[in-house]
Amino acid sequence: MTARLLAAALIAAVFAGLSPFAAGQSVEGKFGRALKVGPVFASADHNPIYAVNPVTVELWARVNGRDSSILLSNEPRNSKTHWELYTEQETGRFAVGMPGYNPKSVISQTDISDDQWHYLVYQFDGKTVRLFVDGKLAAEAPVKMTAPHYNTGPLLFGYEVGVAAHGDTSIDDVRISRVLRDATKVPAAPFKRDADTVGLWHFDEDEKALAKAGGYGDDSAIGNIARLKKREEGVVDNGGFNNTVGNKTRWSDMDYGPFFSSTISNPSKSNTTFKAVSLQLGKDRKHFITFDTELLRMSAAWDGSFIKIPAGREGLSGPPTMGSTALLQTPVAPGWATGANADDWSDPRPQKSGSLPPSRGKYKGMFLQGEHVAFAYQVDGVDVVEATGVQIDQEFAIFRRTYEIAPSPLPMATTVCSVPDAKDRKEDGIVILESDGPSTFASAYGEGSLQSIGGRVVLKVEPHAKPVVIEVMLAAGDTSKLAQFKAAHKIQTQRNQNRSAYQPVMDTLRKGCPPRYPQPLITKGTLGKSDGPWAVDTLTAPDDNPWHSFLRFGGHDFFSNGDAAICSVSGDVWVVSGIDDKLEKLSWRRFATGLFQPLGLKIVDDKVYVLGRDQITKLHDFNADGEADFYENYNNDGIVTTNGHAYVACLERDAAGNFYYIKCGDRTPHGGTVLKVSPDGKTLSVHATGVRNANGLGMSPAGVVSFADNQGDWVPASRIDLITQPRQFLGYTPMSKTDTPPTDPGKPICWMPQNIDNSSGGQVWVQGNQWGLPAGTMLHTSYGAATLLQVMPQTLKAADGSEVTQAAVWKLPLAFSTGIMRGRFRPQDGQLYVSGLRGWQTAGTKDGAFQRVRYTGKPLHAPTAVAVHKNGIKLTFTDALDPETANDAGSYSILQWNYRWSAEYGSKHWSVKNPDAQGYDTVDVKSAKLLPDGRSVFLTIDGLKPVMQMRISVNIDCKDGETIKTDVYNTIHALAPEGP
Questions:
Q1: 352 and 387 co-located in one domain
Q2: For the segment 477-504, what is each residue's pLDDT rounded down to a tens digit?
Q3: What is the number of H-type helices and E-type strands within the chain?
Q4: Can you give the CATH number for the domain in which 851 is found?
């Protein structure tokens, strides 16, 4: 069998669920079996902790030959936190490459290419790199970060993307730790997990090559299955999402609809459009144009290939680029100027980012007419509607821009294209720009004229008392194309002279357009089976759809008739009908398309508001045909950057009409904050600061915004907060937005250890009395654990007299198909509906899912309240308890520990009694007393005091013979007066 056929067979075996180390890829290792790499390599899901300092990476490797051998690499090379362990070409010396640092490589003097097993260690504390070989220090060097870019990607064993095939190499045990370990002692046995292990692979457990590690409570999976991949085809695991070949993703296969919203850049020139709407023009959809909704300009036009979506995280790791070099473009500057400043093209924005001041221009939205798009905006208070098209003459493309401009008392001007340093001339009414590249041709028709000023072609419009319509034609090509352009120009001039009376285009646009996706897709849901109080039903999504729409759900809500609207981060909004008890006939309609990674949705007065990175969009269906006709810009004041991780998420609304959402951390005024939008959509303000990489909000019945963030640097464990103060700090110091760094992480109502929730979603409150738990009960979605938690708050007075809320959580006995992030109760049936996706590390396995948590009517047998007093803890349950076990102090056990709030990624568990000792403390339960209500127990405890994390284990019987056996995790900020 040839190497190519062998690799193909290996890949087939992997996807068939067979052992990935068959057919000679599993060889005798230092301890047990080892992975032999060459035509194949192994890949594990992205985990940001692998790039957090301090870090120790240990592995055993055997290298035969002086070819450069990649041993282990983390993230792509264009990430500032990328590192790769390798052997140097020709010398075989052990080295580490770090392209985001200076120097970019640290190379030892130790040759390890002798076909012997070597114990190799890489350590980095953020300032100094150290390499060890067989227990001896082989290299040490200070380094300094230089590159600002961040990108995500998998951990690769025996491979680094874009590097040629290497020599004969085998890799055995690999361990990654979040501390600087003693590397001077060569292990005599396989690596073991401990509390500091964040990744561990042995390569001798078939496709289940998992190791267990983690903190207190129970073991949580650490590391990932080391899946085998094929080098020759460039198959790369994109961070745990799905397989990607080259730059092709399932998102790339989509029919996006008439437009695609994103940040986009020209691959060969510095011209990034941060809020871009890119159109596919012509019958063959082979010509493209991008409109900048911030600067109100046509930023670029091109042909050939539409857009290139990055491979990482199936397209979510960074912004796309144009599919080819721009034929036409305009400068990164305001697209319009008016009045006395009609020749002023300077950028008035203080940071050269974000929207223009409303006096200069304001984007209002876009209208759809079939496959055509018209942009609506205001320039100095004057309404403008702009449409774009293309005409093809013997493969020569002429782009057309048509403007309808409302009456204006001032002169107006707009840049239609620009060629820096070009020589300009005018010939037969055509402006021609000549430079080293292709020439540019432009002409205008109607009540406007073109001027060329320093390589910039400007359309001038004089003051006018009635609406005017102006058309501009643009093309790029060599001088031989000028004759074709002249011919088209002549025809258009004659058409303009014979044009009938003006007909307002807005009247037509507001009538709506025929549906593009009229045929509903029918699916059959699945009812979950459960012996407990809740069952999880699945509203089956139409994953196999005519448009290859890649369904990864980021938010949902319900119309007054009970139908649901649900958004996908791939850009769609769908409407789901037929939701009933049996879910036998669900009807799915594609309602909107092309949105910018929507991760939040709210319905108000039966209008859909959807949150994208660029704006909150209000969707209008003018003709009630089931599809959006107008995508209104409700608010687009949020600043967008190229940071792939600066997601915006979770749209909530209070009773006054204010909207709230999260923006993850980037270096902008809005990065790392909870943002608030006024009811009229005109004002954006910072509601809270200190957000790291949060993914969820909630809105309590009292109108208080809740929030949850995930473990990381300055977030020692996942936390839930209630935002009760303006600009409240939520713990993440780099995004505090203060001149002086905070000295306290604030008081979340509850901290949560990793085994309970390692990646948080949003919160939701029970509505009505049809779900088992009382109305007003707080719930929390866990994206990472793919499960649901009940939150049990206690509000009391702190020592300083202020009011403080603390809470306990317990994990409901439920599991979901994907990482759930959003929850809404449907008024029509009183049941909880959740949605989510799989794009980061999660216990969920589906790319996206929409599911219902249905109350079965059976007894709950669950905790329902926790109250902490000076002399003990009161636990309340849903059902009457058996007095014998309830009164037995042995039915309860309590542990407690603190975290350390610091720049380190996460925190160890630290003793409360001995703060410098790692670990936890046992809390003695002196007695347990069943209270008169028959459902509450008071645990008498001496010496209670504030603590960040407590675990209360319960094992008691109910009067009906059922057992309640669960763990409750709580945080104590203050103690209520002595209890029963």
A1: yes
A2: 888 889 899 988 888 888 877 766 666 6
A3: 4, 74
A4: 2.120.10.30
